[in-house]
Amino acid sequence: MPAAFGNAAVAYDGTTLTGIFLRREPLQWFAVQGLQSYEHNKLAVEVMSRWLNTVDTYYKANHTLMEKYNVEDIATSASGGEYEVQHGFAWTNGVTQVFAKALRTGTPASPAL
Known about the structure:
By secondary structure, the protein is mainly α.
């Protein structure tokens, strides 16, 4: 679920992007929480699976977790914003752990990170 589309789009945090599709971890987590609340569990599982695939693909190519991801080419670094893209970002780590546990155990993603 991209946070912004196309050229010169603005992400939820006001970051200006240039020519990338951006995937940010808090949005994935918020979406899953909302979907689970309304019992759209199949779609919640799809969002979690896609997030984990994005993180895994980037990690295999670059050996690090990131704050945000380029969803047009998930093995390539995202760019743009007011500061350099962060490695090992806490939201990424937390959301990834919660989603992996939920999919592994077949239980809803925890509402607490």
